[in-house]
Amino acid sequence: MTEHPAGDIATPAVRVERDGVVATVVIDRPSALNALSPEVLRDLAEAFDGLVAEGDAVRGVIVVGEGGRAFVAGADIRSLAGLTPKEGADAARLGHRVAAAIEAFPAPVIACVDGFALGGGLELALACDLIYATDASAFGQPEVRLGLIPGFGGTVRLPRAVGLALAKELIYTGRRIGAAEAEAAGLVSRRFPDREALLEGARATIAEVAENAWTAVALAKRVLVAATGTPTAVATDLEIEGFADAFRTDDMREGVAAFLEKRSPRFAGR
């Protein structure tokens, strides 16, 4: 992981903490409001690659920003200032690589937003399966105020989350919305009074998910990600394929047997 100075001690810009089946990915650049520099983006991709290698030992991931003021306040503007068009495209590809790693991760990923989730920060949250937020949080895509447009997936995922009309309004105006409005629009799944309750709620959701067959959850996520935004006929075929794949797993046979025998299932993750 890349390091950055924090006082006299070099600390990781991104770190992964483990607590049982829950992994927490922490973006730790509070002095920069956790801005997504190229180094941070590369570290995030590396973090998710490492978690994939652990298989079903990780049943859910929490993504959170350090410091209490921001989840992620945006891309690192200083790193963008002098880029050529080609370098700008490369920067966007790096952001999309992180989003793709999150969407491909075979377990739920919850963005725990406490403070600002703006620009690249909102795009990072949108790549996650769920967005939980504190009442103090704010969301927006302010890129047009810098002469830019969203480059890490905002024009793709924000309309899917809140509808095309509101997405256009937020992207064209660059305005921010609070947690209550974000929840009402369907952007935020659950809202909490403070950071402690936020993280506790995310862990509780992952614990509930972990009671189910890991293979089925992974298949459901695969289909949901692939089918979103596609024509109904294409999405239907993707669901049929995923449903058929479930019949190839030991977990499906165990789940059905447990139901018929009126006992709790003992899923093996295969």
Structural descriptors:
single chain, 47% helix, alpha/beta, 270 residues, 2-enoyl-CoA Hydratase, Chain A, domain 1, 4-stranded mixed sheet, 6-stranded mixed sheet
Structure overview:
The strands form three sheets. Strands 3-4-5-7-9-12 form a six-stranded mixed sheet, sandwiched between helices. It has a four-stranded mixed sheet with strand order 6-8-10-11. A two-stranded antiparallel ribbon has the order 1-2. It has helices spanning 38-52, 77-80, 85-104, 120-127, 154-162, 164-173, 179-184, 195-210, 214-227, 232-246, 250-260, and strands at 3-6, 9-12, 14-19, 22-27, 60-65, 70-72, 109-113, 116-118, 130-134, 138-140, 176-178, 190-192. It is of the alpha/beta class and 270 residues long. The model is unreliable at 3-9 (pLDDT under 50). Keywords: Lyase. Belongs to the enoyl-CoA hydratase/isomerase family. InterPro entries: ClpP/crotonase-like_dom_sf, Enoyl-CoA_hyd/isom_CS, Enoyl-CoA_hydra/iso, Enoyl-CoA_hydra_C. It holds the Pfam family ECH_1.
